[in-house]
Automatic annotation (TrEMBL):
A molecular function (GO) term: RNA binding
Biological process according to GO: mRNA pseudouridine synthesis; tRNA pseudouridine synthesis
Positions of the catalytic residues: D39
Entry's family note: Belongs to the pseudouridine synthase TruB family. Type 1 subfamily.
Every tRNA pseudouridylate synthase B C-terminal domain range: 172-229
Catalytic activity: uridine(55) in tRNA = pseudouridine(55) in tRNA
Gene name in the database record: truB
Function: Responsible for synthesis of pseudouridine from uracil-55 in the psi GC loop of transfer RNAs.
Keyword field: Isomerase, tRNA processing
The protein, known as: tRNA pseudouridine synthase B
EC number(s) stated in the UniProt entry for this protein: 5.4.99.25
Length: 301
């Protein structure tokens, strides 16, 4: 069984669920999950968790992402992208300077109302299911962060932008809101995710490439180890005398640690290894009790 993270290039036309289903067939294993859903018309980086890596799914979502998007001004649709039904169109009379100023005004903290065509749940039902029934319900604005917007090209009515943002940001809603601010409306025409969870598009693999690497027995070389996600955390090695503690997911004290120089670092969470360099899991340090407590274990299945 494969364990770790696979940097998949999701192509247009596939849902994120489609990618998982295809990989289950190619890799011949059931334990596969994805993080950070991409719409069917979007493409780019889709981190896929394999085997023990599926334990990462709830931890990867908090990471920042970078997208390359094409904003189409002059149109508004029900889905906020060009795959949806046209609601209204207006003439684009704004200047390039006005477009730049409007786009840059969204950098920083930004309260965004999630679109009706999204997988968010309200009273147990997904918003897009309600939208398909012709229902629109009130949604509460959520705080997201736009860290950076780089305007790549302006060829009105189209604007190509690269956006670095926080979890939960809808780029098509950003496009819609920019159009609203300019008074000419706007929607998203294209979307490509360039980076997610430290994985870059230049290192990603398409489904066919993954299948070829599997046949050639070379796929393991392209799977990112689980601990890569936590590379910013200090690594500690537990003395083999205390292996029973870490193998059973118990707490342990500082005196169990072999590489005591790590205590000179500023840390809250750490990567824990045994003396064979096997990755055990992520632990949190309790300063009052001077003990390490497990946050997520990756030993075993």
């Amino acid at each position: 069984m494969y364990n770790g993270i696979l940097n998949v290039y999701k192509e247009k036309g596939y849902t994120s669920h489609d990618v998982v289903a295809k990989l289950r067939g190619i890799l011949k294993q059931k334990k596969i999950g994805h993080t950070g859903t991409l719409d069917p018309d979007a493409e780019g980086v889709l981190p896929i968790c394999l085997g023990k890596g599926t334990k990462l799914c709830d931890m990867l979502e908090d990471k920042d992402k970078t997208y390359l998007a094409t904003l189409l001004l002059g149109q508004a649709t029900d889905t906020q992208d060009t795959s949806g039904k046209l609601i209204e169109s207006r003439e684009v009379q704004c200047s390039e300077l006005e477009v730049r100023e409007a786009i840059n005004s969204f950098i920083g903290d930004y309260y965004q109302i999630p679109p009706m065509y999204s997988a968010l749940k309200v009273n147990g039902k997904k918003l897009y299911e309600l939208a398909r029934e012709g229902k629109t319900i009130e949604r509460e604005a959520r705080l997201v962060q736009i860290y950076k917007i780089e305007i790549k090209e302006i060829n009105l009515p189209r604007v190509k932008i690269e956006v670095s943002c926080s979890k939960g940001t809808y780029i098509r809603t950003l496009c819609n809101d920019i159009g609203e601010k300019l008074g000419c409306l706007g929607c998203m025409e294209e979307l490509k995710r360039m980076k997610a969870n430290g994985l870059a598009i230049e290192d990603s693999l398409k489904i066919d490439e993954i299948a070829d690497l599997k046949v050639a027995n070379q796929l393991s070389e392209r799977i990112v180890p689980i601990e890569y996600v936590f590379r910013a955390y200090p690594a500690i090695v537990v003395d083999e005398r205390y292996n029973k503690l870490i193998y059973n997911g118990n707490q342990f004290s500082r005196e169990c640690v072999k590489n005591t120089e790590v205590f000179n670092q500023d840390y809250n969470k750490v990567r824990v290894y045994d003396e064979t360099k096997a990755f055990i899991g992520i632990y949190k340090y309790d300063t009052k009790r001077e003990q390490f407590s497990p946050v997520k274990m990756f030993l075993g299945e």
